[in-house]
Amino acid sequence: MCGIVGILGTKPVAADIVDALRRLEYRGYDSAGIATLENGKIGRRRAPGKLRNLEDRLRESPLDGLAGIGHTRWATHGAPTEGNAHPHMVGDVVIVHNGIIENFAELKQELIADGATFETQTDTEVVAQLVARARAGGMSPREAVRTTLARLEGAFALAIMFRDEPDLLIGARKGAPLAVGHGEGQMFIGSDAMALAPFTNRITYLEDGDWVALTRRSMELYDVEGRQTVRPMSFSQVSSNLVDKGNHRHFMAKEIAEQPEVVGHTLAEYVDFAERKIRLPDKLRFDFAKLDRLTITACGTAAYAGLVAKYWFERFARLPVEVDIASEFRYREAPLPKNGLAIVISQSGETADTLAALRYCKSQGQHTLAIVNVPESTIAREAEIVFRTYAGPEIGVASTKAFTCQLTVLACLAIGAARQRGAISAEKENELVSALVEAPRHMAEILKQEKHVADIAKQISHARDVLFLGRGINYPIALEGALKLKEISYIHAEGYAAGELKHGPIALIDETVPVIVIAPRDELYEKTVSNMEEVAARGGRIVLLTEADAAGAAHDRFERISIPHANPFISPLLYAVPVQLLAYHAAVIIGTDVDQPRNLAKSVTVE
Ligand code: F6R
Description:
alpha/beta, Glutamine Phosphoribosylpyrophosphate, subunit 1, domain 1, Rossmann fold, single chain, about 600 residues
């Protein structure tokens, strides 16, 4: 998603703005731009593609202003061309924007009818036009922004500067995140604290509907009702070090390799290793024993973590669970039980649909629990209780370590819930926790097979379509394997519940279609193997992921990735790793942009 940076500085700001934009690169973007104010003029440089293209422009033609705004654009309205790249300028106004102005078409029509001409296909330009017109009509910058904001519908964050006001930077937030950074005689604005970390750790997060007028020494903040108000300043823990790839070729490779460590860190927060018990925080304001139903919402990979959790909560805690993708859940006006518990899961903590689902659940009187990786994110700040994943910064667009850490937290919660509900004995809790703490060791074993997985990925990389099959608790891992493969290698892939195959998808099977079968030795193993034989009988090329000791003549006919023998309870954590590796190596062989695949964004702040 788009990234926003603004600086009122004491020295030329262009280089700092580019640095901050680099820290927002992980969000995904397809063009970038910057504007600074210098001697009563607005200087602007923009470029399609990566930030290095913008840096080339700046080298050819530097900007020296002491105040400026910058932007990485993830195209929504109009192709990712230089012309559509932000900042957008109309008259004395220059503006950057993240999000979508939903009523831009009608505003544009109205402006055109009033004589305005447009240079871009973006929705953002209507905002610049409205502010510029209000200014031309005699309004002050603050007044012009205030009246413009009142006309905008949608979810957005904005940073706005004025040619003749070198000590003024206005920011606004509705839906999309925006933070103010306080410096010494300097002020900053950014999409998140990570962007501002090199400059300051003193951060004020804007609330929804807020807008703020900054000078180098002051901050005036207005809430959604237009009342001047104060928001707390917090000290961000985000490190100013730019996360690097270490010895890895891609962030995704590094993040896959980090999983034993970060799953271990996450376990350390929620497990009493000595007693082999789950530690639930005292501050829980609900009792699992009193719940009739649990509602889990999330998007993409995080939603698949929720789907795995459904199996865990239902089986061990005997607690019915409803899982839905947040983009559907938020609009279907689901009736929710009184005093129920809603869990939202999000790596970024900024996903627009998940945030909306959280707000809906709150409005329906639910207790809310967020599983998030970014502790200062909007979802973390708005949920009643936060269970953090300790994955560390995840930079690759495709979620890997955040997913397995989400699974880890959910497994702990499910065991904790099972205990509170009296659904499992102390011995069973012991058994499950003992299995869980073994997960990092098993994951490390699986990672040792990377070369073998890469060889199999080579064969898959020629396929046009790939199927992933799983059953029960590993059905969501089949969905996740397919998502991972398609999003980074662009090979079409689908995940299916193995038992569903003969209800349609089996028609796709021929010798050109690799079928990845996820089959731990659990109670459904024989059934999955039967489904696999049905595929083999029709010429499908099978890659079997199962335990090393799952012997049998049938298996020797297929490509095989051996997974350590473990309690089936933790199998989703283990089988996630080879499917990630398969996707990663297929993408590397094909030569796609693994960390920033086309069209994708890391932090999806629009719906
Ligand atoms: C896929 C992927 C996405 C995210 C989804 C939710 O690899 O990363 O499907 O899982 O966009 O993002 P978060 O977890 O930030 O809410």
